[in-house]
Write a structure and sequence with these properties.
17 helices, about 0% strand, mainly alpha, two-stranded antiparallel sheet, single chain
Length: about 400
């Protein structure tokens, strides 16, 4: 065993390959990337008292009331205010590099969470699973991080995966804080709060929600107090694309229906809560991001990064198989939707179908899931006891 542990393939060699794969996709996408970064820079300038050309309304803490088109939260604003100072052109290159690296960090954190929650997994097999999943994950993540540069989604997903790691470690307060920060980066991530239901014991669940609620109030209250109209940003309409899931469901309004944003969060949270109730808490991210894909009025390619992130967490912590089947399926949907660009109805139907299948499968089908159960040791150390059903 000592000889085996000294061999090169027992080390995290797969991250060298994944880093090279990330660099390759960065090289492909960076020259024409940064499509949306100017919007984040404009918002950060408005927050700090600046007035970019064409934006004459009040900024500062009245930012969201004046410009509801900025569909991200305070966490993203603060991070943008910092990142835009890290180089010319609003720090675009440095930010692209950092956001690309966030994809590698997500892979590493998810792997660590799986190793901690499922110690029965063979480490070598786990490395191969992460490598296989990462091969699909990296190109899709690069579309989000390098091509579109949507910092809000990057932060929301990274913080959610960090919350999964905190959950596995039994750190109630940290999990609540991280989930609140995730939603504070991008409000659709409020559905991820269902992860808190996975803690054993009502007191621990309530404590987690209390921390999440407290941080959420601290993040948003200054803007709402400065201008109560800030809450109107949630009603901002974007075009309802002809190939959206909403169109496939018969919603043919030109823009976002007023009920759509709350429905995304509530349906995602509700289905995720059912999954948690059935011991499938690793499915929370996959379910919530799938519901977003199905119910969002637009169909931007970077949305798929949420799917592959949720699928990655499920494949590593919830699936019985070594093959990262759901990550492969989620990644393939990007190419499928690209191929369906001329068949709008089929594209919309496939978005809805993926969400239905993802939620149904992870809730109902057998899974090798680490259940968080109370035990004397957990009460003393604050860490959960993990019970592993047999693999099949």
């Amino acid at each position: 065993m000592a000889v085996r542990s000294a061999r090169w393939y027992t080390r995290p060699w797969h991250y060298l390959l994944l880093a090279a794969w990330t660099a390759k996709w960065f090289q492909v996408m960076a020259p024409h990337g940064g499509a949306s970064w100017h919007l984040f820079v404009q918002a950060a300038q408005l927050l700090t008292g600046g007035h970019p050309a064409g934006l004459a309304k009040a900024g500062g803490l009245r930012l969201f009331a004046s410009y509801p088109k900025f569909q991200f939260g305070p966490v993203t604003l603060v991070m943008t205010a910092i990142l835009r100072l890290l180089g010319p052109n609003g720090g675009i290159v440095v930010t692209q590099v950092l956001m690309a690296c966030c994809g590698l960090l997500i892979l590493a954190v998810a792997e660590r969470a799986a190793a901690a929650a499922r110690p029965d997994l063979d480490p070598e097999q786990l490395r191969w699973t992460v490598l296989g999943a990462g091969t699909v994950f990296v190109p899709v993540w690069s579309i989000l991080a390098v091509s579109f540069m949507h910092l809000d989604d990057v932060l929301a997903l990274l913080l959610a995966v960090l919350a999964v790691r905190a959950l596995v470690s039994g750190r109630v307060a940290l999990t609540g804080v991280l989930l609140a920060l995730s939603a504070g980066a991008k409000p659709w991530a409020f559905g991820f709060l269902a992860l808190l239901l996975a803690f054993a014991g009502r007191d621990r669940v309530l404590r987690g929600f209390a921390w999440a609620a407290g941080v959420t109030v601290l993040l948003w209250a200054p803007f709402v107090i400065a201008d109560p109209g800030s809450v109107a940003a949630a009603k901002f309409e974007i075009p309802n694309a002809v190939n959206s899931g909403l169109r496939a469901l018969g919603v043919n309004s030109a823009g976002t229906p007023p009920w759509d944003r709350p429905a995304q969060i509530l349906i995602g949270f509700g289905l995720a809560a059912i999954a948690v109730r059935r011991g499938r808490w690793p499915a929370v991210l996959l379910i919530c991001t799938s519901v977003r894909i199905a119910l969002d009025p637009n169909t931007y390619p970077y949305y798929t990064a949420g799917l592959v992130t949720g699928a990655l967490v499920w494949d590593l912590l919830g699936s019985r198989r070594a093959v990262p089947a759901w990550t492969l399926a989620a990644g393939s949907m990007f190419w499928a939707w690209t191929a369906m660009r001329d068949d709008h109805l089929l594209a919309g139907q496939s978005r809805v179908a993926f969400a239905v299948v993802a939620a149904g499968y992870t809730i109902i089908a057998p899974a090798a899931v680490a259940r968080l159960k109370p035990a004397a040791a957990a009460q003393v150390s604050g860490r959960p006891t993990i019970a592993h059903p047999p693999h099949g």
